């Protein structure tokens, strides 16, 4: 049997749930491209001066793996993203070695169609895959990041897939990030395990387009004492995300986050709805319209309309790299529980925190300062992922 690699204090794992999806593939390819100096780190907040000397792991130290339920090889997935214009056309061949390396670390997750494993067995299997990855790659730690398809809001007590993965992350002793609106660690049955895990976590649902804009415009109307009467939005989107959100139950989870930002920044819930339409031929490109009807002085009626045309995966991927680095560093310095200062990245942030982007950015800058100041605890090279205590995890199942 080959010898176990020694643990490197500088190698950090990024375990992606939904590892063969658009966002995950773009994050893996993008990390390799930036590391190789092929592209600048545009869109990565952690590469700005604010994070200078904050002790974040280097991009070159990130090692990727993950779970998915499909088996399309990552280099092939990257080629189809390049064909769709999401990745530069020559990038998949330039970073094929890195894509292949990540591909070798992807395991089939679950639950699979007709899966007969119990919740307990599934969590154990998923956690074992993560622990094996950490051990095999000699990692100091690994962050589990959920970028799998959005699932419908679950009914009943059973743990949905996203929560099984979140429980597995805790069981493997890994910090956790939920970039999707799925339940993940929010499930009430995981609350005590999350609280007692001593691990940092962040989520939910990355804020990359329409909601990002809302978290800037909402405070503007409130601060200028303009009365928003109605705020309506429509999104046209293709790709895997568009297909998943064609299910009204899945879209409901996403729209709740978009509307919450308005309620939190305006202080009231304005009239109007948000819709998501699946338009497969748009692929990864999203068009989002907002129509904001507001009153000015003496009740004068006015309207602001915005059009956002974005490529979803290229907006999301740099944030995945940011979050993995930030949560890895938070874990290294011993932070635990919800990292509220990461609300900047999310539609529905964990913990207490402001909803306006400007205030959220100030919190992020404060976190950077804290991370810079916190001395690395002695012996922090010990792989914490090896120390996950299965007895801590979902209590009622054990
Ligand atoms: N700008 C953005 O792209 C953005 C912003 C916020 C949130 N998100 C969320 O990120 C997620 C990923 O988006 P995407 O465009 O990459 O979607 P995608 O459809 O391309 O990829 C999702 C991947 O998840 C996999 N998957 C599905 N069920 C799984 C399971 N049980 N276990 C493991 N893997 C599973 C699929 O096979 C697929 O490979 C979505 O939930 C989306 O809502 C994206």
Automatic annotation (TrEMBL):
Coiled coil: none annotated. GO terms for molecular function: inositol-3-phosphate synthase activity. Residues 209-313 form the Myo-inositol-1-phosphate synthase GAPDH-like domain. It comes from the Bacteria. Residues 375-398 are annotated as: Disordered. Residues 383-398 have a biased composition (Basic and acidic residues). One of its GO terms (biological process) is phospholipid biosynthetic process. Belongs to the myo-inositol 1-phosphate synthase family. PANTHER family: MYO-INOSITOL-1 PHOSPHATE SYNTHASE. This is Myo-inositol-1-phosphate synthase GAPDH-like domain-containing protein.
